[in-house]
Amino acid sequence: MARWDRSQPTAIPEWFFEAVETPSESAAVEVEECDVAWRTWDAPMDSRAWSAPADKRGLLLIHGMNAHSRWWDFIAPALADDYRVVAMDLTGMGDSDYRYEYDSATYAKEVVAVCDAAGLGTDVIVVGHSFGGNMATKAANLFPDRFGALILADSGLRHPDEPLPDMPSMGGRAKAYPDKRAALARFRLQPPQPCANAYILEYIARHSLMPIDGGGWAWKFDEDLPNVLKDAERHPEDYANLRLPVGLIYGAESKLFSDRTRQHMQSLIPGDVPAAAIPDAQHHLFLDQPLAFIAALQEMCREIG
User: Fold this and answer.
1) 3-class SS of residue 85
2) Residue 15, SS3?
3) Other CB atoms closer than 10 Å to residue 271's CB: what's the count?
């Protein structure tokens, strides 16, 4: 990361620079004729299959809708001392290929393929934010013996009597911008919310752009994805059928994961389901309160691991 705000040394905390400047290695694995990109913050990889050190448990981070693995750049390094940390790009987002159609079963295969390619083992802890948590839940249902634990970050199923807040559609017409400056000025979180950490938003925005043929820049996601996505709806049985330890972390001010949602989730998922609410955080909780999220995630991994 270029230190684009060093003229204002107090604007960005030093821990953030140390995190995003931690070396990472990227790779890809093919799933149904599409490359699925992933990265790790552990030892450098070579051309052979990577296997995790025996003393490190695997930890897979999965982003939300229209996001990508670089959203975890300032989170993952804090976990790398204790875990073999990997983050992936679901197809249609980030540096992974686009598909003509998307479905939850294929996303589940992508999750398993990345775990296999990264040598994460069958006791891997999967952490999914929002849509990533939904797909991780589908994967845990389809491949019940492949994962060791699941942590859902502001991701779950609302109580049937709790109405959904009004949210704009995630799809829409493709947008191209003449230059990076114009694109960065238009970056917005989806679903919309304010975020006091402007430096985090700028970092993510800078890593969310790609050059396009003919000149200009576009965001790294398939605008058609929401319109051609199938079998991604959440159902009570998705959670009732889980047979692995599950933990919940959510934003205390989230409009998508209320305390009633937490209670509903705990009533659906078998066994003890610990939950942690991050104060002063909304749906994009690890952007709002990154250090508190890291602490909560570390504790949750210990508790359910």
Assistant:
1) strand
2) helix
3) 11
Report the alpha-carbon distance of residue 168 to residue 88 in Å, rounded: 26
Residues 82 and 109: beta-carbon distance below 8 Å: no
If we measure between CA atoms, which residue out of 149, 151, 152, 153 comes closest to residue 57? 149
CB 236 within 8 A of CB 104: no
At 103 the three-state DSSP class reads strand
Per-residue pLDDT tens over the stretch 54-77: 579 999 999 999 999 999 999 999
CA distance 303 to 114: 25
- How many Cα neighbours within 13 Å face the side chain of 99? 24
**Following CA atoms 94, 98, 102, 105 in sequence, which dihedral angle do they give, to the nearest 10 degrees?**
-70
Residue 127 belongs to what H/E stretch? strand 125-129
In one-letter notation, the amino acid at residue 92 is G
Tell me the C-alpha distance between 279 and 266, whole Å.
20
Give pLDDT tens digits for 17-30: 999 999 999 999 99
Q: What are the backbone angles phi and psi of residue 267, rounded to the nearest 5°?
A: -80, -25
